[in-house]
Amino acid sequence: MTGPTADDPEALRERALSALLAARDRTTLLTTCVDEAELTAQHSPLMSPLVWDLAHIGNQEEQWLLRAVAGRDAMRPEIDPLYDAFEHPRAERPSLPLLAPAEARGYAAEVRGRALDVLATTPLHGTPLTDAGFAFGMIAQHEQQHDETMLITHQLRAGATALTAPDPERGEPFTGPADVLVPGGPFTMGTSTEPWALDNERPAHHRIVPPFLIDTTPVTNAAYQRFIDDGGYEEERWWAPEGWAMVRQNGLVAPLFWRREGGQWLRRHFGTVEPVPGDEPVLHVSWYEADAYARWAGRRLPSEEEWEKAARYDPVADRSMRYPWGDADPTPERANLGQRHLRPAPAGSYPAGESPLGVRQLIGDVWEWTDSGFLPYPGFAAFPYREYSDVFFGGDYKVLRGGAFSVDAVACRGTFRNWDHPVRRQIFAGFRTARDAGPADTAERV
After folding, report:
1. Cα-Cα-Cα-Cα dihedral of 83, 85, 88, 94, to 10°?
2. Residue 346: which residues within 8 A CB-CB, separation 6 or more?
3. Strand (E) or helix (H) holding 188
4. In terms of Cα–Cα distance, which of 357, 415, 430 is closest to 179?
5. Mean pLDDT across the stretch 414-418?
6. Is residue 432 a contact partner of residue 176, using CB atoms and an 8 Å limit?
7. CA separation (Å) from 199 to 7, 192, 290, 373, 389?
8. Which pLDDT belongs to residue 181?
9. Residue 389 and residue 396: Cα distance in Å, rounded?
10. Which end of the chain, N or C, is more open, meaning fewer C-beta atoms within 10 Å of its C-beta?
11. Do 372 and 303 touch, CB atoms closer than 8 A?
12. What are the Cα distances from residue 84, in Å, to 115, 195, 203, 208, 387?
C-alpha cells in the first residue's frame, strides 16, 4: 500500500479503524502492566502521571471525533481543563483532581465506542476534517505519540521492568562505507499529498541543497564512548555555550542512564542494568551532546533539509519518495518501529530500508537531532488548531527526524517533523553527522 487515498473510501475507513485499534491496544498494554499506584505516581517532573495521558487521550478523541466531526454535545465538559496540555505544566498535573485509573479507563472506552460509530457512518469527504479521514488519522497519531510519551515514562520509572519485547535480530556487522555523498541541487521537501500529514509537514516546496556527506548509519555507542574517553565532556571547545553550562551545572559525563562501573559502561534500560551495547545507535543524548560530538569528530549535524533529502530523494527518478525505500508503507524488514522491540537494532541493520543513495536506518531505531530550529514552511497554514505547531515555531526547539523504535508507523513518515528543547535527554534520540562536500569528494564518488 502507498497510504490512504480518497479514491477508495472503504479501504480508507478500514485503515483508519486499524490505526485506531492498534493505538488503543498499545495504550492498554502501557497502562495495564503496572498497578494503580504506578499509574498515578509522577515518575519524573518531566512527565505526566500515566493516568493523565490515558484520560487525555480519551478527551482529545472526544473533542475532535465526537464534538468536531459528529457535532455531539460534550460528555464531560468539566474535565476539559484538567487535560488541556497548555493549561497545566506536567510538573503540576499530579496535584490536579484527575480521574482515577478505573474512571479514566471507562471514560476512554466509552469515547472510543462512540468514535467507532462515528467512523462507520461519517462520509470521508466534504470537510477539511473528514477529507480522506484526516481527523481519524490525526487522533490515531495523537494516541501513538502519547504512547511514546508513556514509554519514556516507563524508562524513567524506578523498579523492575514492566515491559518485555524480543530484541532485534543481530546480523553480520555492517561493513559498508562510513558516509554517503548526497548530490547538490533541488528537491521537493514536505508534502501536499499525504492525506494524514500534519500541518507542519505542509506544503510541498522546493529546496536547493549543496552537496554534502552524511553518515551511512546513526552514531553508535562505541563511537560515542571514544568521544567520552577522549575527554569530550571535559573540553569546553566542543560545546555550545548553553551546552557547556548544562554539562558543568549537572555534572554530566555520559548519556542519560549510563554509569561507569568496574571499568565498563553500564546503562539502565527499562528496569534492567546491562553493558552498553557498542553496535547500537547511541540513545538519550541531548542536542548539545550530539552537537559536541559532531564538532569533536570534525563534522556537524545535518540540517533538516539535508536530512530529508538524504531520506527521500531518488536521484535516478529525480523525485522525493514517501520513505527512503520508496512509497510503500513500513514493514518489519524495512524499519524498527511500533515498540516491536524495546531498543534500536545494531547500526547498519535493515538493508531493505536503505535509501537509493545507500543511507540506512533513516526511519525507526532512534530519533535524529538536526541542526535546524523548528520553523514553518513557506505557505504554512495552521490546521486544525494553532497549538499543534504554530505556537512552537521560532522558539528554543530543535527538529528531530526519522522516528525511533518507540514510534508507530502511523506517526512516522519521511516528512514527519518532531521537535524538542535542545537540553532534552529522556527522549529516544540519537543522531548522525554530516559535512560539506568539496570538489575532491564529488570527483571521487561520481
Report:
1. 60
2. 168, 170, 171, 173, 174, 277, 279, 280
3. strand 185-189
4. 357
5. 98
6. no
7. 22, 10, 28, 17, 7
8. 97
9. 13
10. C
11. yes
12. 20, 26, 28, 40, 11
Alpha helices in 239-300, H assignment, sequence order: 241-250, 287-296
264 φ, ψ (degrees, to nearest 5): -135, 160
**Cα(147)–Cα(163) distance, integer angstroms:** 13
Residue in 402, 398, 215 with CA at minimum distance from that of residue 297: 215
pLDDT in tens, 312-367: 999 999 999 999 999 999 999 999 999 999 999 999 999 999 999 999 999 999 99
Task: Set out the domains of the chain in order of their start, with CATH numbers.
Answer: 9-156 (1.20.120.450), 167-446 (3.90.1580.10)
Residue 9: how many other CB atoms lie within 10 Å = 15
Q: Is the dihedral of CA 274, 276, 281, 285 positive or negative?
A: positive
Write out the H or E segment, with its range, that includes residue 223: helix 221-229
Q: Give the pLDDT of residue 1.
A: 41
Residue type, 266: L
pLDDT number for residue 8? 83
Q: What residues contact 217, with CB distance under 8 A and at least 6 apart?
A: 174, 281, 347, 348, 360, 361, 432
The CA distance from 107 to 74, in Å, is: 12
